[in-house]
Every structure is written in structure tokens, then in C-alpha cells.
């Protein structure tokens, strides 16, 4: 292979797959684990790129593809929403007051059991595929780990999001849906 074609291939590969890794330390961000509120839903929505992770790259395949991380976030968000909806319905049955935001959210984001099952298996496979081997501190008292406070090497999420936006399929632009 000639030097020119190696350089061209290198540039093409850098453009096909988003580059970059970063060292970071994780700390809790309760915005993503709290019950659905306008604030938490805006935070989840901010994770989605324009096009919701659906891209069109003729160099990769002649059809629209989905970037896995955004499918994974969609599944996690759906499971989170279902979890809080179930807790809300149990509380409502016990006489808890109506939460207008949760009522509205449940009416528009209910995911079927088959979709939930898909998401559990899909996320299991995604976790195993990535096989994150970063090391986490173990609490010497509880012999447990939260995952917080340990330095990690991660892919730069904003680079992946930007790459997905650059190659967004023009037919799926609604970023309000996670």
C-alpha cells in the first residue's frame, strides 16, 4: 500500500470512528437518578445528539445506522422512567397526591414489557462488550464499592456526540426524545 493511501486511510478511519479518550474521576450526579422532573428530563435530553444517534455514513454502510451509546442511553432512560412510573402508581394506589409532571410523562413515555426486556438484555450485552476494566476503590469498612472517586480512562463522550451530530441522518432530528 502506498504512503498516500495509508495517510488517506488513517484520515478516513479517524473520521469514521470518533477519536479521543480522557482521564476523569466520577462523582455522583443525582440529576440522572432522581424521579422525572423537568430538570432531570432536560439533563437526559442533553445527552442525545441532534438526530438521536442515527447516522448515515456511506463509507461504513449504505443504510442508516444507530450509534450504540445513544441506543444504550435510550434504554437506560426508558428503564428509569418505567421504574419511577411503577413507584408512582403504587404510591397513587396508596393515596399519594397526583404529580402532574409524572402523570404527563407516564402518558407519553410508557414502554412495553417486551421493550423493557430488550433493554435489560441489550444493556447487559453492551456492558459486557465494553468490559470496562477501570479499577474502583473498595471501602475498607463495608468491602463494597460505589464506583465514585476512582480515576478512569473514558472515551470523550462529547466527541462521540459531536461526531454523531456531524453525521446525523436528516430524517430523525427530535432531540426532545431520549
TrEMBL record:
InterPro entries found in the cross-reference section: UstYa-like
Domain of life per record: Eukaryota
Pathway annotation: Mycotoxin biosynthesis
Pfam families found in the cross-reference section: UstYa (PF11807)
Gene Ontology annotations of biological process type: mycotoxin biosynthetic process
Family: Belongs to the ustYa family.
Entry protein name: Tat pathway signal sequence
Organism: Botrytis byssoidea
Amino acid at each position: 500500500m502506498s504512503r498516500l493511501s495509508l495517510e488517506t486511510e488513517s484520515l478516513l478511519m479517524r473520521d469514521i470512528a470518533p477519536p479521543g479518550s480522557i482521564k476523569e474521576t466520577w462523582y455522583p450526579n443525582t440529576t440522572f437518578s432522581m424521579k422525572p422532573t423537568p430538570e432531570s428530563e432536560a439533563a437526559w435530553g442533553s445527552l442525545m445528539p441532534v438526530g438521536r444517534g442515527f447516522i448515515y455514513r456511506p463509507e461504513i454502510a449504505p443504510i442508516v445506522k444507530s450509534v450504540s451509546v445513544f441506543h444504550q442511553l435510550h434504554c437506560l432512560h426508558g428503564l428509569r422512567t418505567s421504574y419511577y412510573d411503577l413507584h408512582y402508581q403504587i404510591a397513587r394506589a396508596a393515596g399519594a397526591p397526583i404529580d402532574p409532571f409524572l402523570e404527563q410523562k407516564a402518558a407519553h413515555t410508557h414502554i412495553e414489557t417486551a421493550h423493557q426486556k430488550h433493554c435489560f438484555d441489550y444493556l447487559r450485552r453492551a456492558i459486557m462488550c465494553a468490559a470496562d476494566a477501570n479499577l474502583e476503590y473498595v471501602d475498607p469498612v463495608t468491602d463494597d464499592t460505589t464506583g465514585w472517586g476512582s480515576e478512569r480512562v473514558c472515551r470523550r463522550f462529547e466527541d462521540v456526540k459531536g461526531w454523531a451530530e456531524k453525521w446525523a441522518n436528516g430524517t430523525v432530528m427530535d432531540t426532545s426524545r431520549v
